[in-house]
Amino acid sequence: xxxxxxxxxxxxxxxxxxxxxxxSGRRISIIEDTPGVTRDRVxxxxxxxxxxxxxxxxxxxxxxxxxxxLKQMRRQAEIAIETADVILFFxxxxxxxxxxxLDVANMLRRSKKPVLLVINKIDVRAQSDNVYDxxxxxxxxxIAISSVNMLGLGDxxxxxxxxxxKSDDGDDENEQEPIQVALxxxxxxxxxSLTNKLLGQERTxxxxxxxTTRDAIDTMLVSANGKRYNIIDTAGIRRKRAVEDESLEKxxxxxxxxxxxxxxxxxxxxxxxxxxxxxxxxxxxxxxEEGKAAVIVVNKWDSIDKDTxxxxxxxxxxxxxxxxxxxxxxxxxxxLTGQRVDQVLKCVDDCYEQSRKHxxxxxxxxxxxDAQAQLQPPVMGGRRLKIFYMTQVAVAPPTFVMFxxxxxxxxxxxxxxxxxxxxxxxxFAGTPVRFIIRNKDEKDE
Length: 445
Description:
CATH architecture of the largest domain: 3-Layer(aba) Sandwich
Structural class: alpha/beta
Number of domains: 3
CATH superfamily of the largest domain: P-loop containing nucleotide triphosphate hydrolases
Number of helices: 12
Order of helices and strands: EHEEHEHEEHEHEEHHEHEHEHHEEEEHE
Oligomer: single chain
Distance between the termini: 54 Å
């Protein structure tokens, strides 16, 4: 059963992300003393007093702005309000009540959702009198806290738990663990657009301005056949030298790289017009080195002039540029029009299953024997490589141990040949495979 949603809303720079990180017990939202740092909704699961719920951090609401990004941030906050079971309305206790606070309070009253009025930055007793000014907002008793110093957080969490909807007693033990799917790529290749198209809703901000997404944003998706996916939209990864002086973007890139580490399947987005760039190759290399299953998604296919064979020609170009990832499927889509987007999750399912495939030792060694009969192991310094046997020791990625007479005799080209024979026999499409070479005394054999 889905956990109740608790949304944190308020003007920019009132300490919403600081509370979010303290309550969730980890530094998830990027915190900086700059209004507008949090742009999209960011989610984290929280448990308090035996009750579990999902906390949503949002960008600041500026009711009167005409700025494009600030208007989109406001829309993201409105969506959070619409979907939430409980709303935390954060105000700045040091600054006192503002006209914007009143505008936000009116918006929340219209939502008819349970609202807790939270007055943050009450760090010392002398500031407590500031709390009384907020009664005029008409949202009940204010709750004074200091997110930075963790004062009053327990009381606030107690109040949240009281307002959570009653859950039906059910057995979730058999519920399928969601497949973790990370969308990665350079800025402005359409990651957020694809996220929104997959989810069928306006989940993340979409803009032609590179760098719009700054956090790695998780959203649960349940498909028509009941499969569950955690879709992770990430910030665009630019070249290192382009971000080293911008600390905020640097943290965003680190979050994107961390998302690769925790995903099961990575969707590597490439701009159809640009083709595979040097930076695309580096991002794909990160995915490969992490041992993650991968789908190469060529986006903006609607913008390409086509004739007979254009797609196959482009597929060959992509795989030629990413030779080390020639096992990955390539799908051509338009996140804008929805063209072939329905193929993306099918590819995810296939790659996920392949990355978790296990081959019996008997079947594996039959293939190994046939491969050696087809092409003998190499000879170096007058000594021939002998492979005694092979066994699979892990999945995700599939990992094989080969026991040999001398590991220094294993040439990369021959290992590649064996990999191709194993893939030909058992598949493993969409996932890297790993080999571990171990020496074994020939006498023992």
